[in-house]
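Second attempt. The first submission of Dual-specificity RNA pseudouridine synthase RluF had a stray character pasted in from the spreadsheet, which I only caught after the job came back as garbage. Lesson logged: always re-copy from the clean sequence file. Corrected sequence (248 aa) follows.
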Amino acid sequence: MTDTRIRLSKRMTELGLCSRREADEFIELGWVRVDGKVVNVLGSRVGPEQVITIEKQGLQAQAERVTILLNKPVGLACDAPPVRKNAAINLIAADTQYAGDADPASLPPFLKKHLTNLVPVGRLDNEASGLMVYSQDGRVAKKLVGEEAEFEQEFLVTVEQSIPDDVLRELSRITMWGDDQLRPFKVTQPSSKQLRFLLRESRPHMLSSLCEHVELTVNSIRRLRIGRIGLSDLPVGQWRFLGPNERF
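This time the job returned cleanly.
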């Protein structure tokens, strides 16, 4: 008989309960139950019919993890460590938290612990700007990047020259990225020198390469939205927390 069991941590990730790293952490701490029994041994295996739950300590730990939205300027590296001068994460500080029309005193306080295990999710090239997500929550990364990415991303690309009539048709024919199959994407032309891309993946230099393929010179690339979460009026170089009523 075929053994259909898989590692508990992998199954927890498949179910969207947490990231693989979080699953291993919760298992070691004894915060995971399988069919009502605590399992605290890494490498334990479970079947597809077994019920997995996370103890309240784990749920509380997840609730305390933050997700941050940054309007990244051009020239900063979203994945560079803080010791680098061009690291975008260095913009995440108390004095750059966006208040909007609210009283700054009413905002959730920024704490140093919010930078612990805060990782970039869905990178932007250095020369691109716009919405950048940083999160301590592994579930957010699972939803936004990789083959299982669920959310549409919207980019506005401005080019140097007027766009020829046949460019949209040529772009729609591109289905491969090197040896890899591209996920379907949409492109429209909001103005004579702008293209709007709607896609569910964002590979390094992908948009600039697509434009070069159709002989367009890119002036700027700006990410406007991921899913329902957009830049709105978030100023360049400032950030805010993902709100309690916002979800990826």
